[in-house]
Design goal:
6 strands, 144 residues, 33% strand, single chain, alpha+beta, two-stranded antiparallel ribbon
Length: 144
């Protein structure tokens, strides 16, 4: 009993010693179509949360996806075009994109639209402001 208690205290202490704040950010860049030519936009224009599966593995990087938004506003034909690191880490990103809700832009007629979207995923231990700045800078780098 005494040893079990000591082991529990040691586990708690060792966990707290290694606890570190990590900040994550996601940056979305719509590569095509151009803004003036778009038919569909995301219903909620807030930045998505860092996928938990990627954060747990400290996966950072970028991915470019091509997909269609149908006349019903649904994502179809989702395809990974390029990514850093390896594509196998971006399964959570596909799930994220498939969950987006789309609305037709006012004054436009509903039609199928092919989109090319880049998502950048950044992490650091400094601050939320610094990770957001880091992510904006990362969007200027190649993602292949």
């Amino acid at each position: 009993m005494k040893y079990a208690f000591l082991a529990s205290v040691f586990t708690l202490l060792s966990f707290n010693v290694y606890a570190v704040d990590v900040f994550g950010a996601v940056e979305i860049t719509h590569l095509s179509p151009e803004k003036a030519e778009r038919i569909w936009e995301r219903e909620k224009q807030v930045m998505p949360r860092y996928p938990k599966a990627m954060a747990m593995k400290s996966v950072r990087g970028c991915s470019v996806f091509k997909f269609d938004v149908t006349e019903e506003g649904k994502v179809k034909n989702l395809e990974l075009v390029s990514s850093l690191p390896e594509a196998k880490h971006f399964k959570p990103v596909k799930k994220l994109i498939k969950g987006w809700d789309w609305k037709v832009i006012e004054g436009k007629a509903k039609a199928n639209e092919q989109k090319l979207v880049r998502l950048d995923f950044c992490m650091n231990r400094e601050s939320s402001e610094s990770v957001e700045a880091q992510c904006k800078a990362q969007t200027q780098l190649a993602c292949e």
